[in-house]
Every structure is written in structure tokens, then in C-alpha cells.
Amino acid sequence: MDSNATDLIFGQRDGLASAKLVAVFGLHAASLALLFAMAHGQPASTLGRFAIIAGRWPGRLALAAALAALIAAACLIADRQAGMTTVLFLNAGVLALYVIEYSILLSRGFFKRLLGDDLQAELRLFICFVVMTNAGYFTLMFLKDILLSDSLGVG
Question: What Å distances lie between residue 2 and 6, 137, 143, CA to CA?
């Protein structure tokens, strides 16, 4: 299926549509769980200030699963109402939010330790944003290939 097709991504209630929904849910659940774990490690961050994220891991995991289920449901509704392009834009928007949050958290954590205090905070944030933009782009292309696939498996 090419990207100009007008078919629904989750057209039939078959194994392929279920696998696509599970892939969307899994990608967002893993991204959110990692994001919440990183925010938990940095209590001064914006996300780290929320009580459920600052609390124990079952709450963070439940929140990640609930938000991922909400995103998967929004993708299903968007596919039924507006089609494939809207689903891809919806996922691109959510991934953009992840990229921004990951960039901020990494610039204060990993890249601060990696690059030291020799580099200004703004440059460190810019480097993180470039790295995470590339990661977000490749994640979106991976998700696009999954959503537009015609069959399960390789080949």
C-alpha cells in the first residue's frame, strides 16, 4: 500500500488491524514509560513535579498504559472518521511532544554529564533537540511502515 491510498489503516477487524493497533499502543506505552522514568529521575523537571510520575513505578506504568490506550483509541477514531493521513499526523504530533520532553530531560541529565559544564546549556539543549528530532523522525517512519503494511511479518 502506498502513502496516497485512501484505504483505512484499521479497515477490517482482522489480525493485521489488531497487530497495527498493538504496535501503536506498544510504541507509545514504551515511549511514555521511558519518559516517565527519566522524569522521575529528575524531580525538578516539569513532568517530575506531577505526583503520579514522582511516585512509585506501578503508578507511572499504569499512567503510561492509560495514555497509550487513549492514543491508540484516538488513532482508531481518526482512522474511521478522517483516514490514514490524519492518523499519521496524530502520531507525528504525539511523537513531537515526546521529542521535546526527551530533549529537555537529556540536556539536563545524560548530555550534561557527557559534555560537562564546558558547553552552554542552550547549545547542549540544541544538540539534544537535533539528536531527538532524528530519533523521532525514524520512529515516525518505522510507525508509518507498520501502519501502511499489507501483511504481517517480513517479506
Answer: 9, 19, 14
Do 114 and 35 form a contact (C-beta atoms < 8 A)?
no
DSSP 8-state assignment for residue 45: S
Residues of the chain above pLDDT 90, percent = 29
Measured CA distances, 44 to 92, 103, 104, 109, 143 (Å): 27, 15, 12, 11, 32
Residue 149: φ, ψ to 5°: -70, 150
Cell of 124: 547542549
> How many angstroms separate the CA atoms of 57 and 54, rounded?
9
Q: What is the mean pLDDT of residues 26-51?
A: 85
Q: What ranges do the domains of the chain cover?
A: 15-147
| Overall pTM surpassing 0.85 (yes/no) | no
Instruction: Give which of 137, 74, 125, 70 is closest to 101, Cα–Cα.
Output: 125
Residue 79 has pLDDT above 90, yes or no: no
